[in-house]
Hints:
73% helix; 0% strand; mainly alpha; 302 residues; flat
Amino acid sequence: MTTFLTPVELGLGPEPTTARRKDPPAVHVRARLDSQLRALLAYEAGTRSGVDPEDLHQMRVTVRRLRAAVAAEGGALGEAAAHLQAELKWLGNMLGPVRDIDVQLERLRAEAAAFEDDERAAVERLLAGLVAERRAARRRMLAALRTKRYTALLVSIADAANSTPAANGQAKKASAVVDVINRPYRKLRKAVRALSEDPPDDDLHALRIKGKRLRYAAELVGQPAKDLIKATKGFQEVLGEHQDAAVAEDTIRRLMGGHEDPEVIFVAGRLVEREHARRVAYRAQWRDKWAAVDEFSETFGG
């Protein structure tokens, strides 16, 4: 029987730590680590059981928010920061494959929902390999969550949340928390400007990741950045839809490679056509969404 650690057992207080708007970044970072560690623990049981895929999704998002907090300008976590980043990246890599496959299975089954019964059966034959990949990825994920390494990571996050800001970060205590947005904003803007007129899919995916980092940094700021958060979410969602369509198209082509069943090949062709059209449609929207984010450059761009 699996025993789950509680926030109190990890050394957190009975109630989440809070930060005031005028508190320095180091205080906001520790409050964020506290709240997101509690979220990580809350989603762990559902992630392990697999009953609701949303638990895994939220646990993965929580890991990303923790990484953004650790990387935040002025966090003053000292030598602990590099270790936390490495271990959070490891955990994200353990959660990611199962979630990515869940997204693809849900997407392709929804796309085929209006197909005839025999066509939907052919889609399931097409997806059989992906289902097997998910089982293997889930076994690896569950094994990771049972390790001492995972438990040690939880302890390390709690220690960082309860820590006193490192001495070499004291200069940052006088800065406004809004400053944590500057660096990810500049990185995103630089990446957008470096793109060609018709950038490769991989470049747009990298842009999406930078957009997520900006959004999570803006969440640290809260209310003063609410409009930026909204704009960045729209930017991220369009690039996310584009990426999901691109991955779905590649996945279908890969899965159909070993099939000689004409029904499977037929439905795969239909699905590829739809995903390709969707990818093209979302690709046409991302610059407009970026323009909405870029409107805040004078306020948050540093």
